[in-house]
Amino acid sequence: MAKNGVGARKTKYDGYGHVTGKTIYASDVKKAGALICKVLRCPYDKARILSIDTSEAKKMPGVFDVITKDDVPYNRFAMVPDNHVLAEEITRFRGQPVAAVAAATKEQALDALAKIKVEYEELPAVFDPEEAMKPDAPQVRPEGNIHMYQVGDELKDTRIIRRGDIEKGFAEADYIVEGRYKIPCIEHAPIETCASLAYMDETGTLVIHSKTQGVYFVMGDMANVWQLPMNKMKFVGNTLGGSFGSGNSVMTDHIAGLLALRTGKPVSFQLTRKEEMMASTISTPWIFEIKDGVRKDGKITARYIHVLHDCGAFTELGEYASEKNANLVAGANYIENLAVDSQMVYTNKPASGSKRGFGVNVGQFAEQVQLNKDAEACGISPMEIRFINAFHEGDHTHAGDVLRAVSTVETLQGVAKMADEKLDDKYLEMSSREVAK
Amino acid sequence: MIRKGRGVATVYYPSGFNGGGDPDLATVRMKPDGTIDVSNATAEHGQGFKNVAVQMAAEVLGVDGDIIKLDNYNSDTAAFSMDTAGSRSTVISGGAVMNAAKDLVEKVKAFAADQLGVTAEEMDYADGRAFVKADPEKGMTLAEVSGAATYGGTMLMGLGGWWPGSAAPRDPETGAQHGSDLMSYGSQIVDVEVDDETGVVKVKDMYVCYDMGTVVNPMQAEGQAIGGDVMGIGMALFEDLAPSYPVSMQPYTTDFTDYIIPTFNDTPDIDAVSFYENPDPVGPFGAKGCGEMVNNTQPPAIINAIYDAVGVWIDEIPATPEKVLKAIREKQDAE
Amino acid sequence: MKVKVCFNLNGVPTEILVNPEMTLLEALRDIIGLTSPKCGCNHGDCGSCTVMLDGKAVKSCTVLAATVSGKCVVTLDGITPATGLTPIQQAFLEEGAPQCGYCTPGMVMAATAFLEKNPNPTMAEIKEGLSGNLCRCGGYDKYAKAVKDVADGKYGPVSERSE
């Protein structure tokens, strides 16, 4: 018989290390003689870099290297590789890395940063995604502010989901309910900030102790940046001090690795809390507009959703979030007539990273508040409207997958019992397993 | 005065990357004494994958999880993992480990059969031991197999992978896509207290019922659930990096003094978690993902509870005291 | 100009040279190499760097290293038994309080100091007492219940802290 197998309340595999402080995180790894990396960040929301002069910084005591974009073998990276390792001519958000220093001590690195001369021309920036959609808005990127989706052989500015006949659905409704919902900029805020320790090992391999969520996820990307084959680099990951999606975006590996390659010395690069907050990827804003057609009995006959995702300055994981959101934004409800128009726009703020639940929890926030407004319009309870519209076994998701092992009804029944919320018998007897409509 | 309200939310959440196509690979092998080494590079950021890998391998091999070690350390030694993301570790990384353990069982059976002079088809396996079906006394433990294999120069390694399929391009007319069909479900009820003179919202009690399929480790799953509740309280009530957005990105919060995440004092008095285990027919051991689903219900349930308490909709989170109070005043002015 | 600091660290007389502006946290992690105190904010906000200074729990990022001369500093390494765990460590482990574990060393130190001051707390007192320690995984409920269980004696008597 298996012991401590599936279903067991087994204590955490590395829990002994957690409660004794023996667990080693990327930021705990020390290497004798490691240089400290510090990064110069753009102080403007948007600017043109007219010139960078690193000559004085390079002469500062303890400084081993000062790099700008020209020193990066391949300056583009990320899941959609449009992000810049170090800023190119036009910077796009406050806090964007412009230059990096490797020095013997933190103090020497900071002193050297202060000696880098950058001449900026501040440019008009745009923060409001709805403003950024306008034709005369400041341009965040040369390709235009509006993201283009691949639709068949064409590029289009809207990702659409269509099911049923939305006009027919609205015509069948007794009430039309409309809502508009907004999500702000949210930070992952793991307690360990992003960190890398990079060094060359005895085989000439670049080793990176990284706070990444995927040692293989970033390898191909970094192979590009450093122009190295994958077996000339070794990513060491294992355990992270929280991450919540932030570790899917590279914040320190690229720069630390490059400085280790260039100096031949170990390089330690850890973001300060301030850098983690202002310059790492974030959960960028969303705006949802929902229009529901609801029958007197609480049945949603039609739902139209317009989504605008504010992607920030670079694509990062924004396109992925937008695509996933489009599939799931209508929630765990059976809706026969549905239309989703989803758009994404670039603005001058940190890029859209993946944050726990990303693309989905924001949409389900909007959709679940909207559902309560629907319930109020037809005079039924918030519990009832959820039972009435719940997904059942064999229903199709809004993107067209057939659902199995569905538990909308059962989790509602379960939580009602826990919270002592009274339910009508018809809802107590309901099951997700009944045949699809 | 303090006004009480109750809110509800129901959500679902897919396991794995949107559109699929995100594989994982794993190996399972033995030290000479029959203890087990599992390899898969999934990063552990608190979600509990290490336990999932070890407990699933223990289940397949019929041994004590305590004799199993996991190597997820680095890209030189650990088998490929796509990423820790998209609530995929339990299903996809776990599925790869399960398959690798099953493969090892077959290899152990074949090796033992050879040692015992029978065919692999005549062998069975249970509780860490391969034995002859017709004569169960005749068999070899994992320690015996591993000792004989290792010192006999034979490498026994279970290999496993998991591939959730890859989506074709979306239908250009309808947007239809194979997104994900492996779904977890959850419903939550939240009780709040709203001070209608200060706008301060206090989450009093939270109740949540999740279907994450077969729960691989209930203690860890509870941890995820209460942790998701705490993070959800932050999202609903506090967290905003740029409070002047969209007009300006300044002021921008840059430390925990200004960017408020929940503390011990923001946790509910009751945070009750229950599981409705509806096993997925595809997921390993019927498991579904849970890491992100647990961070969905709280913001809408809390906003719905605020409406129930004071009759105002806060459609732009977070529901800070300023926003709640302003909405209450506007409602009073309108009446 | 570096400053010489002589202090007692986990029972061992210790001598280090530090820059005057260096914090105790930086000295412990970067000079001595003890990484059980974690750095989450370097700002006194998160508590993951909590250590004992002359028997009192302090956030080591808010203490200048140069000021600990002649004092006793105890990190989590100093209270962890050679074999086994303290009741608080045991309770945190068995009740599944740590998730990523990064806040846990600070949480153990803060909880240990808290129970010495208040051996019979209510849940509200525990939450208030530990509210200077942030856990982004949100394991507060399990941490608080574990501390209560320790106070209630479920993990045996709370032993004397080693100095």
Outline the structure in words.
The complex is a heterotrimer of chains A (437), B (335) and C (163). Chain A is 26% helix and 25% strand. In chain A, the strands form 5 sheets. Chain A has a 7-stranded mixed sheet, sandwiched between helices. Chain A has a 5-stranded mixed sheet with strand order 11-19-18-17-12. A 3-stranded antiparallel sheet of chain A has the order 6-2-8. With 437 residues, chain A is of the alpha+beta class. In chain A, a hairpin with a 5-residue loop joins strand 13 (195-200) and strand 14. The radius of gyration of chain A is 26 Å and the shape is globular. The model of chain A has no long low-confidence stretch (mean pLDDT 97). Chain A has 2 domains: 26-123 and 194-279, Alpha-Beta Complex (Aldehyde Oxidoreductase, domain 3); 149-184 and 282-428, 2-Layer Sandwich (Aldehyde Oxidoreductase, domain 4). By secondary structure, chain B is of the alpha+beta class. Chain B has 2 domains: 2-14 and 182-334, 2-Layer Sandwich (Aldehyde Oxidoreductase, domain 4), CATH 3.30.365; 24-162, Aldehyde Oxidoreductase, domain 4 (2-Layer Sandwich), CATH 3.30.365.10. Chain B has helices spanning 49-61, 89-116, 142-151, 218-237, 298-310, 321-334, and strands at 2-14, 24-30, 36-39, 68-71, 123-126, 129-132, 135-141, 157-162, 183-195, 201-211, 270-275. In chain B, helix 4 (218-237) packs across helix 5 (298-310). Chain B is elongated, with a radius of gyration of 26 Å. The mean pLDDT of chain B is 97. Chain C is α+β, with helices and mostly antiparallel strands and 163 residues long. Chain C folds into 2 domains: 3-77, Beta-grasp domain (Ubiquitin-like (UB roll)); 87-151, [2Fe-2S]-binding domain (DNA polymerase, domain 1, Orthogonal Bundle). In chain C, 33% of the residues lie in helices and 15% in strands. Chain C has helices spanning 24-32, 76-79, 87-94, 104-117, 123-129, 140-151; strands spanning 3-9, 12-18, 50-53, 56-59, 72-74. Chain C has a 5-stranded mixed sheet, sandwiched between helices. In chain C, helix 3 (87-94) packs across helix 6. The mean pLDDT of chain C is 95. At the A-B interface, helix 4, strand 11, strand 12, helix 6 and strand 15 of A face strand 1, helix 1, strand 9, strand 10 and helix 4 of B.
